[in-house]
Amino acid sequence: MTTTRTHSTTFTAWPTGFYQADLTAMDGPGLGLETVQEMNSQLRTLILDAEAKQPEYRFGVIGAQKSSLDILRWDHPAVDWLRERILHALRDLTLDALSDKEDLAARVFEKSAIRAEGWAVVYHEGGSHRQHTHHDSVFSGTYYIETGGVGPDAGHLQLLDPRPAAVARHGSPGVYSVQPRPGLLVGFPSWLPHSVKATLHNGGTRICIAWNAAFDTSEALS
């Protein structure tokens, strides 16, 4: 927001876009509670079957296991459905990031090749993820399939203000907390530090799919 007077201007700098969509509550093709529940059931089966067969990937996580990075390339209708949902999130994030340059935003999204990768994370009792950022991508996010072990202060996604001086001087609360629920899709800039609070013991399994996306803008900017 910008306020201008004769000889002074007040403006907001360094805004950070964040995307959040409850797919169970939305109308339209491929949306709504019944569809989301069916897709989540299929995704859950795929992920747990893969967890039993694939090598263990535990980088950055405690009490959890990651799949390989190719989940968005799996040949399955539920994965096709999720790719489409992520594409909608990318469009909205791009339009928000370039809100003052709408023509450029449209060209970037419509003419750029999109490079995306995704991986499942299965959090067992007490599972968590250390603070981190994502490299080699523009936007990242998470889709929640099952949210066992999530409570009022457990299993939440923590988005961290990257301005330590603002946090230290109480100019910012420092953390924006997202309580996962099945069918929730979130997205944010890949450079934004984030973590996952430990899930509850005896609370069940928390299953999500994390994703990264980047654009090849050579054609869009030519």
Overview of the molecule:
The protein is α+β, with helices and mostly antiparallel strands and 222 residues long. Helix content is 26%, strand content 33%. The protein has helices at residues 33-53, 77-97, 102-111, 164-168; strands at residues 2-4, 9-11, 19-22, 61-66, 113-132, 139-147, 157-160, 175-178, 184-189, 194-196, 206-216. Strands 3, 4, 5, 6, 7, 8, 9, 10 and 11 form a 9-stranded antiparallel β-sheet that branches. It has a two-stranded antiparallel ribbon with strand order 1-2. A hairpin with a 4-residue loop joins strand 1 and strand 2 (9-11).
Number of DSSP E strands: 11
SSE ordering: EEEHEHHEEEHEEEE
Q: Which structural class best describes the helix and strand composition?
A: alpha+beta
Number of contiguous helices = 4
Uncertain stretches of 5 or more adjacent residues? none
Strand percentage = 25-35%
Q: What share of residues is helical?
A: 25-40%
- Distance N to C terminus: 31 Å
Mean pLDDT, as a whole number?
88
What's the structural blueprint in terms of helices and strands?
Blueprint: E1 2-4, E2 9-11, E3 19-22, H1 33-53, E4 61-66, H2 77-97, H3 102-111, E5 113-132, E6 139-147, E7 157-160, H4 164-168, E8 175-178, E9 184-189, E10 194-196, E11 206-216
Antiparallel strand pairs: 1-2, 3-9, 4-5, 5-10, 5-11, 6-9, 6-11, 7-8, 7-10
A few lines on this structure:
By secondary structure, the protein is of the alpha+beta class. It is about 25% helix and about 35% strand.
Which terms would index this structure?
11 strands, alpha+beta, single chain, 222 residues, nine-stranded antiparallel β-sheet, globular, 26% helix
